[in-house]
UniProtKB/TrEMBL annotation:
Subcellular location: Membrane
Range of residues in the leader sequence: none
Ubl conjugation recorded as keyword: no
GO biological process per UniProt: tetrapyrrole metabolic process
Transmembrane segments annotated in the record for this chain: 7-26, 46-68, 75-93, 99-119, 131-152
Protein name according to UniProt: TspO/MBR related protein
Origin organism lineage: Bacteria, Pseudomonadati, Bacteroidota, Flavobacteriia, Flavobacteriales
Listed CDD domains: TSPO_MBR
């Protein structure tokens, strides 16, 4: 029962963070600045972002519900909080402030942090569940390449 409560809690936090990040974006995606960027040829259509983040946050919430039922420490909370802050702040840096280089640094740090989750908190009890982080890691690698393309080609 505890894992169900944790799962619901993490769904609320994770999707809430996505909503805050979206709020930070404002109308930047449909604005002149973003439409004039030299975007990567592999930039997916807009609907892919919503579908990807939905899948990612469901998988991440499942993983976190197990992680926190096994290892609920101040350190794990701090690592998770850092991931939420990095996730939300990327939207602010990249879209709201148009600081694409800072956005790139931010997303690289977020990618490294999620890989850290995969490596560090993937012990015996979470050995199979850690693979729920793969959609997040893969998506962050794609997003990092998209952000990097903007930084190095604009």
């Amino acid at each position: 029962m505890k894992k169900i409560y944790l799962f619901i809690l993490f769904l609320i936090i994770n999707f809430g963070a996505l909503a805050i990040g979206s709020w930070f974006m404002g109308d930047a995606v449909s604005g002149e600045w973003y439409s004039n960027l030299n975007k990567a040829p592999w930039t997916p259509p807009g609907w892919v972002f919503g579908a990807a983040w939905t899948l990612i946050m469901i998988c991440f919430s499942i993983y976190l519900s197990y992680l926190f039922s096994i290892r609920n420490s101040k350190f794990v909370i701090a690592v998770y909080t850092s991931s939420v802050l990095l996730n939300v702040s990327w939207n602010y840096f990249f879209f709201n402030q148009q600081l694409t280089t800072l956005g790139l640094v931010n997303i690289v740090l977020l990618t490294l942090l999620i890989i850290y989750f995969f490596i560090t908190f993937g012990d015996d009890k979470l050995s199979r569940l850690k693979y729920l982080l793969l959609p997040y890691i893969i998506w962050l690698c794609i997003a990092t390449s998209l952000n990097g393309h903007v930084v190095f080609n604009n």
